[in-house]
Amino acid sequence: MLWRSDIHYHDMLIIGFESSCDETGVAIAGTDRGLIAHALHSQIAMHREYGGVVPELASRDHIRRIVPLTREVMAQAGVKPGDLGAVAYTAGPGLAGALLVGASFAKSFAWSLGLPAIPIHHLEGHLLSPQLADEAPDFPFVALLVSGGHTQLMRVAGVGRYELLGETLDDAAGEAFDKSAKLLGLSYPGGPELSRLAQSGNPAAYDLPRPMLHSGNLDFSFSGLKTAVLTRMRALDASGRAADPAARADLAAATEAAIVDVLATKALQALRQTGLRTLVVAGGVGANQRLRSRLQTALAAMGGRVYFPPLSLCTDNGAMIAWAAVQRVRAGLVDLQDFKRPEFGVRPRWDLQDVCIA
Ligand code: KG4
Ligand code: ZN
User: Fold this and answer.
1) Pocket of ligand 1 (CB under 6 A)
2) Predicted confidence (pLDDT) per residue in 15-36, tens digit
3) Which of 194, 291, 263 is nearest to 233 (CA)?
4) Reported pTM
5) Same domain, residue pair 160 and 286
6) Distance 192 CA to ligand 1 centre (A)
7) Does one domain contain both 234 and 286?
């Protein structure tokens, strides 16, 4: 029998920091115990009055939040600095200044404790986050990564084994939600606002384009949809109906339906192409209920399964960073000694292929 104390003895505790955009996240996970505690501060309310993320304000707010959040997470986990085995941080992609706050804090914290500081790719964090749900997917699976900055379909064979199947040629899915929401006069971030408005609308009221739906490949394009929403909004304006709640709800519903239709169709196409029946959806747009139920129905019909991160971990958070570090350590992909060296950097633009096993 394995006692709790035995487990603890072998368990390496990792504290992870996320600061790539507008959320400050800190979490502790163990190589045996999994996620232990996490704390998050969202800057949404602060950026809302500007209609989008203001990078300099984001950096300054990360500076204010990171120490209290670290204290909060350590108290929640009942962990002292001396109990930690490693530190992890989002090294990219993201806003340079925002990334630098998390990276320099993580590196200094690690350096003061003689610990390694493991740089984590933000998208790998999103990709592996569905494993934090009660029921975790097994490898291999197809991942649909849909965030404010990315729209990608990937074949995931294991930790560090990601093959890109297709991606957006212009706007990301989250961006399509956010930009359409702005045209509808909704506040930032538009995705959740637009889908709330869509609930009372009729998606069939407008026939919006589904760009690249039949392109024959797994790439996406959303900029044409944005233009179509703009045209419909102008027409509503011209007919004096722009303020009509029912008309706006219909347009929101039609926009959501178009985005979800393209995402779901391509995800199913990726499953057919790879012969896999497990789909994982990650990133902020994974919180969208219409996308969730559409995929659940489709996967059930084909005898497969779709996995989502817990709703609270769909958007950016520290848990996925601590978790990705745990997974990389477990998989033997981390040279802990090497990451004890003092130098570090951030990668505002960083290809996920760079963290793949050759
Ligand atoms: O992953 P995330 O938090 O940040 C990035 O790394 O980009 O994703 C944020 C994106 C935003 O575009 C936001 O509008 C979208 O996710 N989003 C949603 C929903 N919740 C968040 N889009 C549609 N429906 C939602 N319920
Ligand atoms: Zn993200």
Assistant:
1) 21, 147-149, 174, 177-178, 189-192, 195, 283-285, 287-288, 315-316
2) 999 999 999 999 999 999 999 9
3) 194
4) 0.93
5) yes
6) 7
7) yes
